[in-house]
Every structure is written in structure tokens, then in C-alpha cells.
Amino acid sequence: MSLYKYTINLPNGKGKEGKITAKDKEGAERQILERYPEASNIILNIQPTATKKSTATKKSTATKKSTATKKSTATKKSTATKKSTATKKSTATKKSTATKKSTATKKSTATKKSTATKKSTATKKSTATKKSTATKLRMTKRQRYLYLQSGKCFFCGEDLMIEDATVEHLYPISKGGEKSDFNEVACCAVVNHAFGDMDIKRKLEFILRSSNNFKCPKAKD
Question: Is the pTM of this model over 0.70?
């Protein structure tokens, strides 16, 4: 069915307008003539129905909503994509920063260990060098006593080689004598053996009875 707007002329000279619903134009004219048999100059204009308008409006609204939904969905997807990309970039940046920090920490630790190792090695070398120097500079008891005795035997006063010298304890260790400077002297190894564990009194007595002609006995092959 279609809606028609009509305009007609009546015998009294007046015009009349109205609307009528019909399947087609001929049907509309028949209905008008049935109502107004004396009508003339019938003018019909088809009008869009409310249903069509409503349908068109609904379609337009649905299209707009669909478009809006698509735009909204696209916007959400775009926003989600941007957020996801930003999150990935942020995560990658954090991982990169963490990796750099970890690498820097490892390098710093390795450098510290290397420096500590070098310092430790240098300290050990320095200590070893000092010990070695001290060892070289340090004299044995025999060397020291011979040096203090001008290289001579304490008892006979003869020149004494280091290889023939020994440390004699004036007061024997076996009788409570101490291993100290005031109780030790350098003398010939042979006389040291000869004196054995004599106490200082007997040693001096033996030397004094030699009428100042005391001489250390010579070692025999």
C-alpha cells in the first residue's frame, strides 16, 4: 500500500486536499471519485509511508550504530595494540636496562676481583721480596759472632774460617745454660767438641794453665 496526497476541484469552485492509501494510482483515483463523484482535476502525489521512513531511519540508525561500533572496536583495538606495543617496549627496555646493569655489575665485580687479585699478588710479591731481602741481610749466629770477634776464635785468637767455626756455649746447655748472646761465642769446632759439657770454670782453668799459649787443637783427617 502507498500513501497518496491528492488535490481536487469541486463544483462550488473550492479546492480540496487530502491523503489516501491505495495499492496504486488508479485505485487512489477510484476511491477519490467514490467519495467525491463531482471532483475534477485530480492531482495525486505519492508520499513515503511512515513504515518506509521508519525502516529507513532504523537502517540509518543501525548503519550509524554499526559504523560507531566498528569505529569504537577499531579504536579499542588500536588503543589495545598501542598499549601492548608500549608494554612490550617498556618490558624490552626494562630487560635491556636490567641486562646492562647485570653486565655492568659483572664487569665491576670482575674488575674488583682482578684488582684485588693484582693487589694480593703485588702484596705477596712485595712481602716475599722483603722476606728474601731480610733473609739475605740476616746473618747466622756463626757469621754474627765471627764478625763481632773480628773473624777470630774466641779462645785462641787465631783467624777462623766460617766452615771451621761453631757456636760454643760458655755455660753448657746441658747444665742450664741459655742460648743467648752473653752465653754464646764462636770458636773452632774441634775445641768445642773437646770441651764437651765442661762448665765455664773448668774451661777457663784449662786455658789459664796454658800460660797464655793456648791454641785450639787441629782437626785430624
Answer: no
- Grid coordinates of 7: 488535490
Q: Express each pLDDT in 6-36 by its tens digit.
A: 898 888 878 888 888 888 888 888 888 888 8
Identify the DSSP state of 17: E
Question: Hey, what amino acid is at 103?
Answer: T
How far, in Å, CA of 139 to CA of 135, rounded?
Answer: 8
Give the residue-averaged pLDDT of 107-132: 82
166 touches 192 (CB < 8 A): yes
Mean pLDDT of 172-198: 92
Question: Integer distance in angstroms from the first to the last C-alpha of the chain?
Answer: 158
Q: What is the identity of the amino acid at 36?
A: Y
More confident residue, 177 or 44: 177
DSSP strand pairing (2-9 vs 40-47) = antiparallel
> Please, what sign has the CA dihedral across residues 166, 167, 171, 177?
negative
Residue 15 neighbours by CB under 8 Å, 6+ apart: 7, 8, 9
Query: What contacts 216, CB < 8 A, 6 or more positions away?
Result: 153, 155, 156, 158, 187, 188, 190, 191
Of 2-6, 91-95, 129-133, 139-143, where does the model show the most confidence? 139-143
The residue written with cell numbers 773448668 in the block is 202
Which residues, 6 or more positions from 191, have their beta carbon under 8 angstroms from its beta carbon? 153, 155, 156, 168, 216, 217
